[in-house]
Structure formats: C-alpha cells, structure tokens
Amino acid sequence: MSDPHQHPTAESSASGGDTKPCVNCGCAGKTATRDARRGFMFRFGAALLGVGGAIAAVPILGTLLAPARRQSSAWVSLGRADAFPIGQTRFATFLNPIRQPTDGDAAKTACWVRCISPGKYQVFAVNCAHLGCPVRWFAQSRLFMCPCHGGAYYEDGSRAAGPPPRGLFEYPWKIDGGNLLIEAGHLPGLEQST
Amino acid sequence: MRTPRMFSLAIDWVEARTGAVAFIAPLLTHHVPRNAKWWYVFGSATLMFFTIQIVTGVCLATLYAPSAAEAWESLRYIDEQVPFGWMLRALHGWSSNAMVVMMAIHMLQVFLHASYKFPRELNWVTGVFLLFTVLALAFTGQVMRWDQDAYWGLGIGASIADRIPVIGNQVRGLLLGGPIIGGETLSRFFALHVFVLPGAAIGLVGLHLALIMKNGISEMPKVGATVEPATYRAEYEKRMEKDGVPFYPDAAQRDMVFCGACLVLLVVLAAVYGPFGPGGQPDPTLIDTNPRPDYPFLWIFGAVSLLPPASETAVMLVAPLVGVLVLVAVPFLANAGERAPSRRPGMVLIASLAVMAIAALTWEGKTSPWSPVMDGWSALPTPGHFLTGRTPLQVQGANVFQFAQCRNCHSLDGLGGERGPALDAIATRMTPDQLMRQIQQGDGNMPAFGRNLDSAQMTALVSFLTTLRPEFEAPAVIPGAQLPLPVRRMPGEVSTPVAAGSQ
Q1: What is the SS3 assignment for A194?
Q2: Overall pTM > 0.90
Q3: Which of residues 200-259 of B touch A (CB under 8 A)?
Q4: CB contact, 8 Å: A68 with chain B?
Q5: How many CA atoms lie within 13 A of B32 on its CB side?
Q6: Does A88 touch chain B (CB under 8 A)?
C-alpha cells in the first residue's frame, strides 16, 4: 500500500497481458515494458522446456514404444530330423532364438512336430489359434485339444471343432545337415502367424 | 496442567505453519444426512482395503524379485522362508479380492440410490475410473505371481490384442513389451502394478474424496424428493444445516464398526486360507496346464467362452469400450428427477440383470463346462453297469470310447467332460445309423472321427453306444418307422393332421 506505483491491474496484466495505465501516475509506458519483458521471459522459458522436453522424449517414447516394432524370428534347431518317427506327432522344445537375458524359463518354447513321410514335416505352435492356450496331442484320436475353450484340431493342424477361427499356426521348417530347423521367435498370432 | 498447555501450543505452532487443522477439521465436522445409517459404509471399507493394499504391497515389493527368471522362486521364498511372509501375501491377495467386491457393492448402492445425479456426476465418473484402475491392478497383480496362470493369461490377453484390425500386432507388442512373454513383460507389468496404477488410484481417490467434500454426502432417496439442478445445492445446504449430523462421530462410528469387522474377517480369511498361488512354474514347455483367471475376471472368461465364435472378435474388442462409455455416461443420461428405486424400476432391473449376469458368468467361468476334461479318457472309470451283460464287441466299443478320448467331452454317470452331451441315454435319442454319421462327420462342436478311427473301431463303438439307455426306455428308431402305413383315402375324406412331434 505504501508504494504509490502499485498497479491495481498488475496481477491481471501479468496473466492476461492487459496493459492499463497506472492509476496513480499514469506511467503506461513502464508497465507495458515490464509486461512485455515478463511475457517474453515466459515464452522463452516455455521454448526451453519444449526443446529440452523434445530431446528427453526420444528415450522415453523409444522405451515405451519400441516393442511395437515388427516382430522378429530366427532359425533354430529341433535336433536330428530322423529322430521324429514317420507317421507320428511328437512334442519338441527349443530355446527361443530371440530371448532376453532376464526371460528365465519363459524363453523355453514348445511345439508339435509331425513327420508325414521321410523329409516331410509339419511343425505346429502349441498356442491355440483361439486365445493362445497350449494345445495337447492325443495320438489315439489323432486330435489336438485345447484345455481352455475346447478347440480341437486334426493331425494336419486344420480346425476340427470349437471356437478357433483357423487351424494351428505352423512354423516354416527346413533340413540342414540332418537337423530339423524351424523359423521361430515371436508369439504366433492371427495378424502374423509365425 | 502443563502438558495439555504444551500440547496445544505445539498444535498452534504447527497450525500456524501448515494450516493442517483448518484442512482436516471440516473433514470431520462437515454435516452428513441423518438418515444414511448403514448404507454408506461401503466406500469407506473400499478405502480401507486400498490402504491395506498399499501397506502390504510396499512390504511385498521389498521381498519380491521382479525378474522373469526369479519372480516365481522369490514368491516361494516369501511363502516358505520369510517370517510371516505367507501371511503378508495372503493379506494382499484376499484384500485385493475384497476391495473389488466392496467397490462393486458401493457402486451398486450408488447406482440404485441414483446418488450420481446433480451435482455428483463427477463423483460417479471418478468412481468409474477408479473401478477400471482397480481392475487393472487386479489383472497386473495376477501377472506378478508369474506362474502358469499368469503366463497363459498373458497369452490370452495377447491373443485378444492381436485381433485388433491393422495394428493388432503392434498393440500386442506394446502389451507384452516385446515379441514374446518374457522378462520385459514382467518388468512392464511390475512398473504398471507398483508405480503407474497405484499412483493413478491415489490421485483418483483424492479427487473422489475432494468431490465428496465439495458436493456433500447424498441423502437417502425419498419418493417425491426430486433433484432439481437449479435449486438443489441451496436446498441441500439448508437441509444439512437444519437436519444434518457431523460426520464425526455420528457417521464415522458406523464406518469404524464396519471397517473393523471387515478387517477382522480379512485377517481370519488370510490366516485360515493363506495366500493365492503361485501355481505351477512359468515354463511354457509344461503344457499340462489348465489356465484360469482370478475371480474378478472369471465372468469375462465365461463370456468369451460362451460367445458364438463368429461374433467373438467384434464383441471382445468393442464390448469393453461400450462398457466404459455406458458407465461414464450414466449420470449424464439422467442427472435430475427422482432418486427413489421404486420410481426407477428400469434402473433397478438393469442393475439386477447385471448382477445376475456377472454372477452366472462367474459360476460358468469357475466350472467351465466347455473345457474338455483332458485326462478324462485315461483317469475316469467306465461305470460297471454299462459293461455287465454286454457282448465282446460292445465291451470292445467301451474300450474305443475311452481310448478315442470320447470321455474328455462326454460324461457317463456324471463323470467326464461336459462339452458334448452326456451319453448315458444316447441310444434313446439316436439310431445306430445316426450315431455312425455323427461320429464320422462330427459337427460344429464335435470333431469328425471318420479319418481317425478304422471301420472295426467304429463298428465296436456304435455297438457299445446303442446299449446306452435305461432299461425301461425304448431305443431310438428311424423317424417314421413306427408310424402306421399311409391309408389310401377316398375322395372328399378329411385327412387327420399328423402331430408335429411324430415326424
């Protein structure tokens, strides 16, 4: 109250940029300069924050969004190809070729290998095409059955019954040096099967 | 005389520097409706369970190893070696379920009493956000157990995300933190479960409570006491001044008694029944598993299982969005007028149907009759009375029935799968020819066994199935076989209509 230049509009001018002259002395110029300086400082600060924030956002968004990139896979061996008996479907496991050091047991992966005839195979993912539960092979009825919602598949992987929208997911395979190799990695799914 | 004086001086000193008393006093002294009685204790109990979650959760975080390679082992360590570690996990698990249940009851009470009407629309909206935050905490908490249920539960979540058109694969990657369910998946869910979601919940609880202070506790609904936005606030304040009672001690006493009883019940449940899981170790090559979600999600599991496959994707992707939108929209669709349930029969009907649907679907999810009994064929005995007096061919058929895994989906004497019909009396409904056709060709829910059984097995199986009927019931016959031969009618004779059922 003791300051004769106390502007009643000081607060509103700081926020709203409203420059009314000082009621005590009419020093309109001074107020305008001060408001302009404050406005500039605010915008300058905002610009600094924007630049700094944009740079900091690179690793932040990178960390959060990186997993959305296209899923990868690699060739992995299931062991000797002739170890899979002709006409039978056998359980096989492998260590996921795209695992991380912290994956632990989760990097272990299972699949079903069907040897149709010498040198001719089908390798199925264990994940049901419905909602991904692990299907089990029943050699007697020659069916794969899913414990979750009762999806069933024939021995060639085609859908037999229940809610699956398609047959079992198949891994691409090849024989290399007598070993059966499959191209595996990411979790199979409808958008990108294997 | 000196101590109280010193105490009050200390209070004054703190008050002058913080304003704490001025902040807290209105929380205790604000007036609440006199007639609320025991209806309004559920929100307080939800808050109490949330507090327990934070305290036990912080303790668990000091013991848990959030690494896919060690999480499961660290839970076993907490359960078996840390003093009272099992009790800590039991409290956290039971309190989590209790919080979801209490929140649902609180929400139901608010819905039935229409407490969401003016000016409390945003109380409801923050409550809806809290509901979804708490459900997300429950789901991410299930992942923390990092057992087989957690692993395959994530697989189900990933499969649903994968069904989103165009960007499904990307969304699945974001959900799992990578191309597989692994180390980064657990770390991602750990960050959500202990930082992001609790932070959001604490903020939302603060907002929810601030809105309660701002708008006041709603009165009990009374027929004719309608909400008029133009005048409501002034009239409410007038009524509270005249007729209200201070929150402390009048309403707080009931909150205290109810919360106390809940806490005692929680401690007893936790001590008697112990912690939830962990189930089998999270090794995806151990496929002899039967994954089930936790209680709050069993009804969704049930609903997904019972949907017709053709509508599945659309419902799974659209229903959650519609659910959120409808819940948020509730107070905006009707924010004035009657609050009494007797004047809002439609709303009471909706609430009742929702409760019944969720209860029924939870039961279905728990019993999951659609799931095959995976070891039914090898583990269940063939009831003796289905074997006595049978021919060798029929007994051979009983063997085929077991070994072809028929029992996984079909029950005899109530034992076996419920995915297909019980076959105790199948011979009264199907003729041998129909049985043969059904087994060979299957249908939508039954695989065709024509490729998988040879003719000898098929003959034996059908021969066994034709014996499956109670002695006093006749076997099925070819439709029309027992009808009298058509009678040649004279011109002008009126024909007798044949009953529809006999065709």
Answers
A1: coil
A2: no
A3: none
A4: yes
A5: 24
A6: no
Residues of chain B with Cβ-Cβ distance to A192 below 8 Å are 169
* Closest residue of chain A to B399, computed from CA coordinates: A140
- A73-185, what's its fold? Rieske Iron-sulfur Protein (2.102.10)
Q: Which amino acid is at A49?
A: L
Cα separations in angstroms, A99 against A74, A75, A109, B178, B452? 11, 13, 10, 10, 38
Question: Which B positions 308-367 lie with beta carbon below 8 A of chain A?
Answer: 309, 312-313
B69 and B124 fall within a common domain: yes
Q: Reduced to 3 states, what is the DSSP secondary structure of residue B308?
A: coil
* B180-235 per-position pLDDT tens digit: 999 999 999 999 999 999 999 999 999 999 999 999 999 899 998 899 999 999 99
Q: Are residues B424 and B336 in the same domain?
A: no
Asked whether B403 and A140 are in contact (CB, 8 A), the reply is: yes
| Residue B180 shares a structural domain with residue B123 | yes
> Which residues of chain B have a CB within 8 Å of the CB of A135?
287
Chain A partners within 8 Å of B283 (Cβ): 105-106, 108
With CB atoms and an 8 Å threshold, state whether A72 touches B179: yes
pLDDT (tens, 9 = 90+) of chain A, 194 residues, equals 445 455 454 444 444 445 555 555 556 667 888 889 989 999 999 999 999 999 999 999 998 898 887 667 899 999 999 999 999 999 999 999 988 888 999 999 999 999 999 989 999 999 999 889 999 999 988 999 998 888 899 999 999 988 888 999 999 999 999 999 999 988 887 755 55
B49-79 burial code (b ≥16 CB/10 A, e <16): bbebbeebbebbeeebbbbbbbbbebbeebb
Chain centre distance of CA B244: 39
Signed CA dihedral, B287, B288, B294, B295: sign only: positive
Q: By the CB < 8 Å criterion, does A103 face chain B?
A: yes
Shared domain check, B399 and B329? no
Judge whether A92 is closer than 8 Å to chain B, CB to CB.
no
**Residues B155, A131: C-beta atoms closer than 8 Å:** yes
Inter-chain touch B287–A134, beta carbons under 8 Å: yes
- Domain assignment present for residue B279? The answer is yes
Same structural domain, B416 and B339 = no
ipTM: 0.82
